[in-house]
Fold:
Amino acid sequence: PQAARGQGKGRGVGVGDGQGFFGLSPRLGRKIVYVVDNSRSMNHPHDSEAKTRFRRVKVELINSVWHMGPEQAFYIIFFSNKTHPMPATTLQSATPAAKLRYLEWAARMDAGGAPTDPRPALELALNLKPDIIYFLTDGEFDKIVNRKLTRIKQSRTAIHTFAFGERIGEAVLEQIARNNQGQYTYIP
Structure:
C-alpha cells in the first residue's frame, strides 16, 4: 500500500508501511484493539490507490494485523452510529487462521451511518483490557460526546489516536492520547 505521512502536531508521522498501525509500532503491546470509524464520511475520496478513506484504513488495518506475531492478540471494532465488534467475545491470538477469519470479516465491512458516537466502541475496547488501543476517526463528535471522551483517564492501556483526513476533531483526539499514555497522529 501507498505510505501516508502525517503532518499533525503530534509526534507521529503516520507512515503506513504494514508495521504497526500507520507507523506506530506495537512493540510494547501484546494485546491490541483497533477502534475504527466506519461512518458515512469515511466514504470520502482519498488520494491513494484505495480511492476512499475507508478502503485506505482497511488496507492499513489488514497489513497491521497480518504482521502481528503469534504471541500477540487483537480485536477490531468499527463504529458509526452503531458499534460493530468483530464476531468474537475476547481478544484473538494472532494465529494465521484467526487473522484470516477476522480480516475477511473486516474486509467485508462497509462505511455508513451517522451521527458518529465512539463511546460504546471505546468502552468495549477498554473492557477487553488491552495494552494498546488504536482509535481512528475522520470527524468530530457532539459536545456531550467530546466531554465524556476527554474524561477517559486510565493507566493500564495506551490509547493512540488518529485523525484521518480531517483535523476538525484534533483537539479532542490529542487530549484522549495525552490522558492515556498515547500518541496523536494526523493522517492526510
